[in-house]
Records
---
Amino acid sequence: MFNYKHITIIGCLIFCWGVLSPSPVIGKEYKQIPLAIQISSTVSDGKYGLEEIIYTVKEAGFKAVILTERDLMRWEYGIWPLRNVLKRKVENNSLFRFGIKRYLDKIEELKERNPDLMILNGIESAPYYYWKGAPLSEDFSIINWHKHFLTFGLKKYADYANLPVVGNLGALALPRKIKNIFYLWPLFLIGLGVWFLLHRKFDYRDAKGMQLAPYSSVHRITGIVLIIIGVLFVLENPRFVDYKFDQYSGDLKEIPYQNYINYVNSRGGMVFWAHPEAGNTQQENGITIETKPQPEDMLATSAYKGFAIFYEGYNKVGIPGGLWDKILLQYCRKERQLPAWAIGALAFDTEPNLKKNLEDLRNMVLVGEENQEEVLRALSKGKNYVIRGGQSNNFILEKFMVKSNQEQAEWSGELKISQPPSVAIKGNFLDGQARNVLIKLIRDGEVIQVFDTLTPFAIDYADNTTFPPGESYYRLEITGKGLHVITNPIFVVR
């Protein structure tokens, strides 16, 4: 018979099961993958060959690398009105010069030979440059040659071949309109030249009707000149079309860059500003090449994925209250459709020691599975943090989470709340040594709390500030000897 003794036993069993059984996992479990971004090889402007780069990246302990060759290293100046015919051209190694298909095949070969390393192909682009001044003048120069994008996630040959950058004329051609028929005038000139070429002094034929009159030398010279002029203008614009812009269009502000962003997005890729705070002035082949820092362009453009906070994107853009925070606040206010994510970009081409650079900067990418698609997906959603410094390969941020009402969001997620949230932070050095670190908790561009602590640390900070309804975000900045960590934001909606 079922009695109180049985009830007691069953109750004890239920209690023990509840206590001893594992707790359910709340949230998603991520694997952290060290990723190196922005290395170019001898395919374009780099110092090392692809095989040597892959070997060094693996030796430095990375699980993934994004190679970023320069797309088109070519500048041209032509004399009006035959700018594409009477021109000087300077061209260096680039992806286009090497051959896109040849390069993509080489990457696939490297993947097969190195299954323990995820090798992703990307590209570094200068969408636009323009000429300032006139030849032989003191201010004759190339502007914005070093204003670059990093592009990841393009998969097809055509995606690369049709990149809308100055010099890649086919990709910048506008659709033909009725007015384009007037661009056929050189063909009329050629036809007229042929008529003059065949013109005779008078009409005289024999009994069989064969023309015996001599050709007119004046008309023949005229015909040859007309044909030459016509052919030159056909070569000037062989497509008989207009172009969106070229290097003679002057300062077009953000237009060429937004055009590039839109193109890459339409092909399923993603665009990051490469070094928004970097300036450059140099002399090459007797030409001044000048690029000023361009952080404000991040405000003028939209729909890009993010920017490289290291090495040339922290002082004005990435600092608390900087331009990055302005962009994130615009997103929170629905003035911008997408936030901007921070990455670390090595910008390595000809520096003397690739291994040393790799030991100084890495991206830790949060993935569910270790494959190329997951890495790209993580970057597109900001599920990464950036580590710079001599301790970059020794530190791990185990947790960055915002919690409220039994709900949570982590690693660039979004959380809807009705009660004050708390922020959970956990980190450690892999060698187990206790080191002092300074943790800045940033909310909406302001440092709201500073934690001066030793590793390992586990912090749970309750943010009891009262806010009006709307969207906010939290992000972290962690510093210490040989350490500088930047996280992407977690958004909260009140």
---
Amino acid sequence: MMSYQPPPQEKLFYTGIHLEKRIRKSHPLRGINDVIDFEFIYKEVKDKYGSNGNVSVPPPVILKLMLLLVFYNVRSERELMDTLPERIDWLWFLGYDLDTEIPNHSVLSKARKRWGAETFKVFFERIVWQCVEAGLVDGSKIFVDSSLIDADASNNSVVDTHSLKRHLNKSYKELEKRLEDQEVCIGEEMGSKGDVNKRYISTTDPDAAIVRQGAGRAKLSYKTHRAVDSAHEIITATEVTAGDVNEAHRMTELMDAHQDNTLHKAETVVADSKYGTIENFLSCYDRAVSAHIPDLKKAQENRHIKEGIYSEDKFTYDSQTDTYLCPSGVSLKQRSVHDSRQSMDYAASKKECGKCELKPQCTRNKSGRTVKRHFRQDELDYMRMMSRASSAKTNIKTRQHLMERSFARGKRYGYDRSRWRGLWRVQIQEYLTAAIQKIQALVRYAKGPARMAMTGAIMDMIKTRVSPVIDFFIKVKSGLSFIKNMQQKGSTVVV
């Protein structure tokens, strides 16, 4: 009979243990620790704490905890803190010892609320600038796209506000009035909401929007908008909106943010057809930027061609007479002006269109064919011509794979679903996710110690003093080149 063997005695005391020696040289956290200086956060949050008392958890530790949460895709702050004592690599990364008291998980949610999204935006921008310093950003060409992520809210939380109003009207008229006042405020702030989202709202995450992607089920979603530099696929600008916001309306903001964050003006912007609007083409023209974007109008005209309808290319404009000549040789004269849309309508008489033999190939409208001309049609035509160049076609093909990689890498860190509720919190998640993706590039490509060479104060000075000067010379140089190219093409230039 085997005698009872007592379990081995656990060691009660640990001496001479150095966590530094326990972390392998190739550990990913060691790479992050080598390239990022977290001490800057003291300056950014010093005004967010009172003067009395001590800060229980140092701000750099809080920021590192946030990175751990996203980098390892831990489900919750509670799980992160529960797991922390078991992970010596995490303890080492935080600067903790084996016997260091682990803070309560609530410090992270309190810090997010206290710091706000702006603090994490500063962190994101510092990493962008560090990538610039390391030579990982070219700055001349950016790719722009958006991607939907699921909100952290169930579709069951969505209520029909119309039905709710009818119910409340029976006994809570005063409350109904308050709800209507609140609805007006929301409508003013979030004017991009579609008809569905004006009627339906999530009670747990009101900032999220109901979006149907393809033939799938409608979901509560947010939308991430990114600008990615072409050199090493560095995310230089990012923004999060409700899921139903039109991505075309965010392109110029991303271009401006790219320039602010990198001090490089984009000379070429590449995007898909969703961004091929009149406003975006003209905005690129005003900025002397080449727009390698499929023309949204051209796609619409292609559908008309398939239906046997003439495209507007069949109508020739005569600037001397300010008329269009249709395929049958009839002149279309200016009939109306739309100041709000900055366009004019050209049409022949109803009688002339009615007796034309080519009408079945021209229009289905009983009143005849109308051709619209923008106030800045010459500039618009030039930008559309540039979008059909061979270099543009190559960049457009590249864009699809490049942007898909950028968003796919974000999904490694759980960024296919929002971790928290509320737009500003999801923006924090995006800043952290994008920062981690850039840090990985720094670890991979930066040679030698890649710590930030400039303090935040110096960096701010450069952005506020040097950037406008650089921007001025860039605009002059690119603008002159742009005008010269247009004149060579025989286009009208409005200076």
---
Amino acid sequence: MNETYDLLVIGGGINGAGIARDAAGRGMRVLLVEKDDLASHTSSASTKLVHGGLRYLEHYEFRLVAESLREREVLLRNAPHIIWPLRFVMPHEPSMRPKWMLRAGLMLYDRIGGRMSLPKSKSVDLRIAPHRAILQDRLKTGFEYSDCWVEDSRLVVLTAKDAEERGADVQVRTACIGLERKADRWLAILEDTNGTKTVTAKAVVNASGPFVDRIARTALGQGTPAHLRLVKGSHIIVSRRFAGEHAYIFQQPDGRIVFAIPYERDFTLIGTTDLLYEGDLDHVAIAPAETAYLCEAASRYFNSAVTEDEIATTYSGVRPLYEDNAASNSTVTRDYVFELEAGGGAPILSVYGGKITTYRKLAEHALEKLAGVMNVPGTNWTAHAPLPGGDMGERGFAHFLWEASERFPWLPPEMLLRLARAYGTRLDRVLDNASCCEDLGQLFGGDLYEAELRYLAEHEYARSADDVLWRRSKLGLHLPAEAHSAVADWFTARA
């Protein structure tokens, strides 16, 4: 007998996880399927920012910026372990945007979202430390403003985990290979490592990111029009370029901006690009022209050139932007758009675009859309609901970290910080009553022990070394190849 759900959500990126969580918390029976790992595609290839989108003001996307800034506050409150404030410095380049424009834009940025907790923007003298030792001498002044950093893949995983704990069924490495529409339900054929099965759902949410048109055609037929502009964004990770915990935002002659952000203690993250993409969506990689562009973009500002020899690794993702016929890829709207099709039987809602920052609000709006064609119980609830590990109260992360250091004095400080950032108040579950590092089991390299692997496999859907080393953490940057092989062997033995 087929299992029956209220809602089948296809796609385990941030939008799919957010919708599944919201629906499950309202009492709906939800199935979330992802053909690969959670956050395998676009959601793990971001610039790692929860931000209002300062540059969107140039394109008059005031609603998007205001909503993003309000959501920045919500996410910072609900996930303080994986989201934290970051100060950005924008050097003034006289040949580009004038000072008055930057100043006016930042004043609007400080106010458009309502009351904000983060420090407001201000002018900054680049001729004094630390900037004078980092930037070229021709750069004299600039501006400073606030946004937030986010561990993007962990945000997806924790959102999916919360969905599961509220009743959702989360199935990774499970592809939806067929959809048959009936008057009052969908029959979905799912395929995993054990073969195929059929489930029934009253409605489908197509949140498959860059694959959204593909799923829409599977459901509705080959005549379904395409609504996507697929835009590739690439990043390079280089050795640490500057001291300090601030980030830089660099204007470019083509009108774009490029970020340079402290990353994983030893590195600097530089990105992003905007290129129309028509390749294989399962194998997205940086192109030589993108590498050259990012090196040149950063070299235009740093006092020493960024070279390809410094690159430790790269990553790329495809943004599934709603096609609004904008003249350039950088000006296509980053807002989200829904396509609801309910005229031919059971409803299907396809999600286009969106930003990590607004995923929670997107989920609310998605369920509002569905409520017009089916029963959606409950009311909006996620604004004040911490994500797993984020229930730290008003005292916040700093107090939690101090308290954890008192309870676990045997943990090396850097290891404690990494684990506290990753797991927050669920740190105890990861340590599993250990009283010394030896109690954590096999050491795979660095500070990665078997206890953490076991937790990730049993509670956070990890099935492979890449799931652990590149999505649920970034330990792949720090550990040698033999550690990767050892983790892979551990998963093989566990299978």
